[in-house]
Amino acid sequence: MYNPLKWSAIFLQALWSAGSRHIFISPGSRSTPLTLAAALHPGFKKSIILDERSAAFTALGASRHSGKPSLLICTSGTAAANYYPAVIEAKASGVPLVLLTADRPPVSRQIGSSQTIDQIKLYGDHAIFFHEAGEPTDDPADYHRISYLAEQAFRKSTESGGAAHINFAFRKPLEPDEEQVLEVKKIYHHSQDHQSVQSAVHSRTVRLHPDIAHQISPAERPIIVGGGTTPAGNLSTSGLAFAEHLRAPVIAEPGSWYSTYPGRIFRFDQILRNLHEELIPDLIIRTGDQPFTKSLIDFFHKLPGIPVIHIASRNSEQDEALRVTAQILLQNSDTLELPQLEKKPEQWLNRWLEADRNAAASLSQLLSETKPFTDGHAIRIFASETKGFHQMISNSFTPRDLALFGDNYGKNHLNRGAAGIDGILSTAAGIASVAQAGEKVYCLVGDLAFLHDSNALYTIKNLDTPLITVIINNSGGAIFRMLPVWNSLNRTMGEDLFRTYFETPHQISFQKLAEAAGLTYYRATTTEELRELGLRSLTGPAIVECITEPDHSMEIRKQLWRS
Q1: What single-letter DSSP state applies at residue 28?
Q2: Number of H helices and number of E strands within the chain?
Q3: CA angle 294-297-298, nearest 5°?
Q4: CA-to-CA distance for 414 and 400, rounded, in angstroms?
């Protein structure tokens, strides 16, 4: 008997047993068996999101926070294509996802049937696993295979970091009868005590290879650099163990998940842009992904011949400067056994700490002397008042500015794999959807990135965990002002052309968008207004718009880069 509901339910139950807990569903007809199987499941947390692109980034945020693959369900055709940007980011940043796309049966393909596209390997190499599930049958062997397929999808997405894509072909009738619904309920009831099929993650003690130990031993001026990661792939413990052992300064970018450490260098962006001879290291130990701040990228390019040891949680090429001399692959549950080394003198670390204090004093003085409300003022207050909470940080200027102006960042989430400005609010919503009871989540986003993902406001309104979005509204894409095109066009074709084609100013009312979504709206045009508002004290889903002055914001950056 043709039973697509049972087929879908067995697949979902296997994913539940493996450890998935969240399903994000976009309504559609062809996906009816998958949607109803999800609706009937007593365990999964289900979220309904109209826009598939937003749904995919929301699932990405949930997976980024939890470390377990969230599930996505959509109908056939362009619905599945809207998952593409998040699929790209998932692989680039090592975040697990499982995509369940409904499809027309093979008999309906390639003959002009409505809402039918070629969904076979739709995401190309950006999906880390693909399987065509085939049409449902009532054969026990096929039920066993569909259950194993779910286990495969979970395992592949988790181990490799990325999206597993399963394509489901369904023919009509798509709706179950009463007997089929009762059968699925019995399946779920009898499977409640089913144990996970996944292998348990065992912690290991990892000993350094002698060749790597020999690169570390002679170093007198070591430095630790933390790049982006996810909570599940966080290797900051190993980085800090090296730092304490070697008395090394720690440079940790936003998104690196480093906790407080006495040798943390917060003003590294200022220091590296004007690096003095006495601060040049003879060994770099990296954790996490490729750094994104320009000063760190240039730093690696300028230091050929210095050993660079990369501690990574996933097997991915993360070496833009081609400087890594050795790599150590670890899980965050592993313990790295450090070699017996002599304690390094404290003078090296003290030099960096003194440079950090001097840079911090320059920053404080510059901000106090600058009267207009700039991006730097807003971001410094944001970093201070949201300390300890989960923060989703947008792309473009935002994470760079957090490194330049902020400090004490810890629980940062960034989509730095492909570094697009799409899906920022949705990712933040996904993080909030799996946050612990009583937590708050903050999102720091530019005005254009906010507009790019405004469909997510529908989801934000309905979250159990409040999400507070802080918009840096500097009238468009201010990041282009740091590129050569800014000076070039001003000299040759005029500022109007630059603003129209690159900076893209807008006249959108964020207040009206907030009101349309039923969200509380606040506005800050001065440092005093933002402080008086009290970001930490806000209790409900809200939008805080900071109206900043772009010219002074750019000038203050340039002064810090020169200091």
Answers
A1: -
A2: 22, 19
A3: 85
A4: 11
Predicted confidence (pLDDT) at residue 215 exceeds the cutoff of 80? yes
Cα separation, 199 vs 205, in Å, equals 18
Tokens representing 140 are: 């026990």
The residues pairing with 100 across neighbouring beta strands, listed in sequence order, are 73, 166
Cite the beta strand spans of 170-288 per DSSP E.
Answer: 205-207, 222-226, 250-252, 283-287
Count of other CB atoms within 10 angstroms of residue 346 = 11
Tokens of 2: 């043709």
* pLDDT, average across residues 312-337: 90
> Which residues are registered as beta bridge partners of 392?
413, 443
pLDDT tens digit sequence for 464-498: 999 999 999 998 766 777 677 766 766 677 667 77
For residues 200 and 261, is the Cβ–Cβ distance under 8 A? no
Q: What is the DSSP string of 336-355?
A: EE----PPPPTHHHHHHHHH
Cα 5 to Cα 186: distance, rounded to the nearest angstrom: 13
C-alpha count within 13 angstroms, C-beta hemisphere, residue 333: 6
Give the pLDDT score at 195. Answer: 47
Q: In whole angstroms, what is the distance from residue 454 CA to residue 386 CA?
A: 23
Q: Is 529 helix (H, G, I), strand (E, B) or coil?
A: helix
Q: What is the pTM of this model?
A: 0.94
- Kindly state the tokens that stand for 22: 């969240």
Q: pLDDT tens digit string along 65-93? A: 999 999 999 999 999 999 999 999 999 99
Residue 199: per-residue pLDDT: 47
Query: Residue-wise over 366-394: b if at least 16 C-beta within 10 A, else e?
Result: bbeebebbbbbbbbbbbbebbeebbbbbb
CB 273 within 8 A of CB 265: no
DSSP three-state, residue 516:
helix
Token pair belonging to 500: 């129209």
Query: What tokens were used for 156?
Result: 């592949």
Q: How far is 192 from 128, CA to CA, in rounded Å?
A: 29
Say whether pLDDT at 166 is over 90.
Answer: yes
